């Protein structure tokens, strides 16, 4: 007797998913870095250094790799590192911090920002962002079902406090400041902090998230840290980055400082997001902070800024002031009428240099014919890039 066989084709239906971030696409940094690789262009777009890390630090890591340092550290951070951070904060800003209740080691500054917003912002809250703003701010706000209120800085990249105040209401829970500022390299002034203090006096429930990842990369003048302002200490979350300071961006390690009543909530989210941060990097940095002088970082990068500016002085680009960070904003208005995204793509394809269009940092994609170069590169890279840029 023949067996009758039947073929069944099972078709799986795609289950529709409502995206929580429907407007988020591939970041401009990824787009430009990918294009730079495809066209073998010099990558001055993404903000990562291409020169060697301090040998003192890599020697520490090499030694530690063979030691018993590969298991979980405490959730809040490796205690000797946390003690070193408290010393760093006191030496830098004369601020005394209790590491047990006010400090958290994070998997990079981005995680510190994300965790803080997720912990402290609730549905229907409003959060003020100052454009041009870094792209990691908005997404956690949206994931909280809160509302980002994006306010453009003035054309000289100073905050317009009159407009900021008008945007505030009883729904406003947080304002994010970035100082020194990415992408513009601007630092806040004393008058800015006076205006911020007035704003906080008017809105007693308003918190401040101060992104200070470039705090040690400043030039003619040091930035004014939120750590130095007594009126902020009970209402501010400060975010810092070892990755930026010591050009170890791939380590993804930073730290967050906040008053105890806020840090309690931040730690709750942190323990379920990452639990604890990479052990060997924490232990290595706890040793390295004993021997490194953060005061020399500004001088190191200022030499690079000045050299890059000198290399471009005969170009058709107009270089804007750079007070901090390792980014140089430049106008190409004398070169092309193209929008900045198109200009940056053509810059890669036709001239072999990658940059970032500034319009992508604005909610309305405000286009002022400005682009951002990263000068955290070795001299030969800067020279090669400048040669191409001066030929345009």
Could you characterize the architecture of this molecule?
The chain has 392 residues and is an alpha/beta fold. The protein folds into 2 domains: 28-53 and 294-390, Aspartate Aminotransferase, domain 1; 55-288, Aspartate Aminotransferase, domain 2 (3-Layer(aba) Sandwich). Helix content is 38%, strand content 14%. The protein contains 14 helices and 13 strands. A 7-stranded mixed sheet has the order 2-8-7-6-5-3-4, sandwiched between helices. Strands 9-10-13-12 form a 4-stranded antiparallel sheet. Helix 6 links the parallel strand 3 (126-131) and strand 4 (147-152). Helix 2 crosses helix 11 (279-288), helix 5 (109-120) packs across helix 10 and helix 12 (295-311) runs parallel beside helix 14. It is globular. The termini are far apart. The mean pLDDT is 94. Residues 41-389 form the Aminotransferase class I/classII large domain. This is Methionine aminotransferase. One of its GO terms (molecular function) is pyridoxal phosphate binding.
